[in-house]
Design goal:
heterodimer; A: about 300 residues; alpha+beta; Uridine Diphospho-n-acetylenolpyruvylglucosamine Reductase, domain 3; Enolase-like, domain 1; 2 domains; 5-stranded antiparallel β-sheet; 4-stranded antiparallel β-sheet; 10 helices; about 30% helix; globular; B: about 180 residues; Ubiquitin-like (UB roll); DNA polymerase, domain 1; 5-stranded mixed β-sheet; 6 helices; 5 strands; about 35% helix
């Protein structure tokens, strides 16, 4: 712990990686800082120092390829919302980015910060990206498994990143998020207690493939803010396949389904309340998906 | 070295100190209020390169090389109030005044991005600005009145020149290169 942490502002990814590779210095990456700046209020000590990623152009890419989106980790929520505004197939991501927190925080908070802050259970982008089968590109400075000599660079499923971030993974530098593109219905629903930018009690994101008759062929349901880490609900997904994509049916199925997320207790709400609202949010997320305009890039 | 309200300011503070603290305690710019310290209340909003951001969440060490504009620069001394501040005053919206620097910065940013907002747009945008006096109805009315006033000012120029940025959208860099200025926010 350091009373006056240092702050490094590298100009290149290589320089940032080099700083982070020196484990003795205890430096960790700093993105929008919207979570870290509240460390003193949470009673958490500063790290010995931080490596700001804000000047790294490589982390601000927005690459729209035919089969995938590649989003730089330093894109703010506001930038991400603007970039995805007309894209039906990633509407869930647009909704998550456009309605998280409040406008001031959305201007600062970043995509990478949302995915790397292990202590933040209520990140909106995480369930949205889980529902889209996103992958992340990371640099693990000093990664002993870097047998390919790729400078610690590797691409891994988001779910794997969520399992291994924090602790030894806290020096990991997330550079890009890769979202596969295909025609699908997607929607996002969150429940804050007020509209004043507070953390949502629970979040549900869905992405669904249907046949021409509207029958679910494949669906991903991700739940955030209920457990400490967002996750998909595979038991529910299996039960919804083969049925019409119907918000009421889905909510009823969710109430009786095994494997439901277990609510964490908090000062805002008890755990049982988070569990109770998930089916309602599922209904809203599917309603939002069905309400999506039929035009737009897929 | 920071650039605050168009002037270079030398600051000696640890790099993870919040910009809000530095503005208030090092630079005596106390119009920026430090209230919740968590980015929820909006009382500390300032413009950073033209974007409204909560200064409590910005480490001062990241601000060098960027333009900071605080409420003190929105209407320089001796100049008439701009559209947002005039509307807030005319609607008698100001009560204790604690939230109003942030409200002004926030509404200015909103009107720059959306010159013709609905009341719902304003309410959505103010999700990051808390008024503990709960005077929201008049604040929303003021925002709509300010939008109408700015459209009125901008209208003839829009018709003549396409769609130039209106006065509420100017950053300190813009203002340095444009003179004279009219009423702003």
């Amino acid at each position: 712990m350091s009373a006056t942490p240092t702050l490094h502002r590298p100009d290149t990814l290589a320089e940032a990686s080099s700083l982070l590779a020196d484990g003795q210095r205890g430096l960790i990456p700093l993105a929008g800082a919207t979570w870290l700046m509240r460390s003193p209020l949470r009673g958490q000590p500063w790290a010995p120092g931080y490596v700001s990623l804000g000047a790294l152009a490589e982390l601000r890419v927005l690459d729209r390829r035919p089969g995938e989106f590649r989003f730089g980790a330093s894109l703010s929520h506001a930038q991400l919302a603007a970039a995805t505004a007309g894209d039906r197939d990633v509407r869930v991501l647009h909704q998550a980015a456009a309605h998280s927190a409040n406008p001031g925080v959305r201007a600062r908070a970043t995509l990478g910060g949302n995915l790397c802050t292990a202590e933040f259970a209520s990140a909106d982008l995480t369930p949205a990206l889980l529902s889209l089968d996103a992958r992340v590109v990371v640099l693990d400075p000093g990664d002993p498994g870097d047998l390919a000599g790729a400078g610690g660079r590797r691409e891994l499923p988001l779910v794997e990143h969520l399992r291994s971030r924090g602790g030894a993974g806290s020096r990991r530098l997330l550079t890009e998020v890769v979202v596969p593109r295909r025609s699908r219905l997607t929607g996002h629903a969150r429940l804050p207690l007020r509209r004043a930018g507070d953390y949502p009690v629970a979040i549900v994101s869905v992405a669904c493939d249907t046949d021409t008759a509207g029958i679910v062929e494949d669906i991903r349901v991700a739940v955030g803010s209920v457990e400490p880490v967002a996750r998909r609900w595979p038991e529910l997904e299996q039960l919804l396949v083969g049925h019409p994509l119907d918000p009421v049916h889905a909510a009823r199925t969710a109430r009786e389904c095994a494997g439901a997320p277990l609510g964490r207790a908090g000062v805002d709400v008890p755990g049982w309340y988070r569990e109770r609202v998930v089916p309602v949010l599922l209904r809203r997320a599917i309603t939002a998906a069905l309400a999506a305009p039929t035009t737009g890039q897929a | 070295m920071l650039t605050v309200n168009g002037a270079a300011r030398l600051v000696d503070a640890p790099p993870m100190t919040s910009l809000a603290s530095v503005l208030r305690e090092n630079l005596a710019l106390t119009g920026t209020k430090l209230v919740c310290g968590e980015g929820f209340c909006g009382a500390c909003l300032v413009e950073l390169d033209g974007e409204a951001v909560p200064a409590c969440l910005v480490p001062v060490g990241l601000v060098e090389g960027h333009d900071v504009r605080t409420i003190e620069a929105v209407t320089p001394r001796g100049e008439p109030l701009g559209a947002v501040q005039r509307a807030l005053k005319d609607s008698d919206a100001v009560q204790c005044g604690m939230c109003f620097p942030g409200m002004t910065i926030s509404l200015t940013a909103m009107l720059r991005a959306n010159p013709d907002p609905t009341a719902d747009d304003v309410r959505d945008h103010l999700s990051g600005n808390i008024c503990r006096c709960t005077g929201y109805a008049r604040i929303v009315e003021s925002a709509l009145a300010a939008a109408a006033a700015l459209r009125e000012i901008r209208g003839p120029r829009d018709r003549a020149n396409g769609a130039p940025r209106d006065q509420a959208s100017r950053t300190p860099r813009d203002r340095a290169s444009r003179a004279p200025r009219g009423p702003v926010s």
